[in-house]
Structure formats: structure tokens, C-alpha cells
């Protein structure tokens, strides 16, 4: 059985797919007590409450010995583009540096109800994008981003296409369209309402949107985890349907390379 070390394990969305594919969790940790409770209940008892910057964590890791896969679903709030950062990847050229900066500026400021003297940062007029980015004459870049489908135009203002956060007020996703990203604050109706009813999504509905099976327990039958913590864990999680696919590919990799066991690299799996 392949051995997994899981860091930043949360409630175990990423790890669930690996468990289902027959991997063995030998060590998992998270600094959030609610996550540790939830993980213990649903995934494995091999989880401990640890901060990865602590000396205790260092000791744990030194004591582990061999493992085959390290899962690291570390916090992604501080950055948005996960990936191998391969300079030769042709996808890097999909947009120019200025275009990237424009997208970053809109992405950063669109959520702010108020930013400086901008009454409502979403969507942004072109002069505000220029002011915030320090660029000028960005008409061509904006046109490119519109034609590539990265931006949408609304009332002569620009916003990220597909983004729903807008002013954050009572958005109602459509029943027959893909769900918006499930966030940690879905308990607050200010952000998203149920498609038909005047209420926020329930925790179970959020878990279903993320792809958790109904057998995965958050607050049920226990007072260890409060409802708001449950929403946080679900919003932080890697969707199990994605981790399942990923785990299946990793398992396949091991099967195909079993004969070269000594040459196998440690597989480092990061899905933010
Ligand atoms: C993106 S979430 C992980 C989601 C998880 N992989 C899943 O699929 O459910 C990031 C996790 O890192 C944890 N975390 C943040 N800082 C940490 C630290 N210094 N040490 C350990 N865990 C930390 C958070 O509590 C959170 O559960």
C-alpha cells in the first residue's frame, strides 16, 4: 500500500480521493482543531493538531521515515495561480504582461465595495484600471482580453468574465448553470442565496456542490464542530471529485513504474 503524508489536511477533501484509491495515510496535520476533528471522523485517525512552522512538526516529520506521496493543500489565499511555473509552457504567452497586470488589478479590486474614491469597485471603468495599474493607453489590451473571453463589458466597465462576486450582495446562482466557487462564508446570505428559496445554501448543499458524499459528516451527531467551522472546512476543501481523479493518475503512475521502484521520485501533490 502506498504511504501518504498529508500536510494542511483540512477536513480531508484532497485526501478522500487518495483513501478511496487505496492509499494509506501515515501522517496528516492541520493547525485548525475543527479540521482535525472532522478529518478524524471521516478520513483517518492519523491526523494531529500541528502548525507546520513548529518544532513539534519538525520532530514528527523526522520520525516518519519513508513515504510515497506528500499531499500539500496549503493555503492559497495569498496567491491565485497555482502551477509549476514552467517558463517554457506556451500557455504563459496567452496574455501579455500588461494584460496579466490588468487582470490582477481587476481581480484585486473588484471585490471591494469601496476602494479609495471608487464608490463600488466592481466592475471597473477603464480609467480606474489605468490609475490602479499605473498603465496608460490600455485599449488594445482590454480588447484582447475581451476577445479571449477573460473580461466582460458591462455599462462601459470591465469585470472578470464568469466572476460572480460583484458587490457581494445577494447573488442567486442559476439552477441549471455551474455553481460558483464554494467559499468559506457561504453561511452568509449576503453573498449567495439558494437558487429558489430566500436563504443561504445549507452546509450539506455546499458539501454536495464541492462533491462530498452525504456520508461525509461535518457537524452531525457531534458538538465538536460548529456550523460556521463546517462551512469553513467545506469552502477550504479540494473537491473530492477532483482529488479522486488525481489519486487515480498517481496510482496509475506507480503501477506503470513499479519495476523501477528505486528510481521513483517522491510525488509531491499540490492542489490549492
Ligand atoms: C486550502 S486548506 C486545505 C484543504 C484540504 N487540503 C482539503 O482538501 O480539505 C488549507 C489548510 O491549511 C491549514 N493551515 C494554515 N496554516 C497552517 C499552518 N501553519 N500549519 C498547519 N496547517 C495550516 C488551514 O487550517 C487549512 O485547513
Q: Please tell me what the overall shape is.
A: globular
CATH topology of the domain at 3-77 and 239-270: Rossmann fold
The overall average pLDDT, rounded, is 81
Q: Counting H and I runs of at least 4 residues, what is the number of helices?
A: 9
Share in helix? 25-40%
Uncertain runs with pLDDT below 50, 5 residues or more? 78-85, 89-95
Q: Specify the biggest β-sheet.
A: 5 strands, parallel
Percent of residues in beta strands?
A: 5-15%
Bound molecules: S-adenosylmethionine
Which class best fits the helix and strand makeup? Answer: alpha/beta
CATH class of the domain at 3-77 and 239-270: Alpha Beta
Q: What is Rg?
A: 21 Å
Please identify which CATH superfamily of the domain at 3-77 and 239-270 we are dealing with.
Vaccinia Virus protein VP39
> Per CATH, which architecture of the domain at 3-77 and 239-270?
3-Layer(aba) Sandwich
- H/E element sequence: EHEHEHEHEHHEEHHHE
Q: Give the neighbour order of strands across the main sheet.
A: 3-2-1-4-8
Which labels suit this protein?
272 residues; alpha/beta; Rossmann fold; Arc Repressor Mutant, subunit A; five-stranded parallel sheet; three-stranded antiparallel sheet; 9 helices; 8 strands; 35% helix; binds S-adenosylmethionine
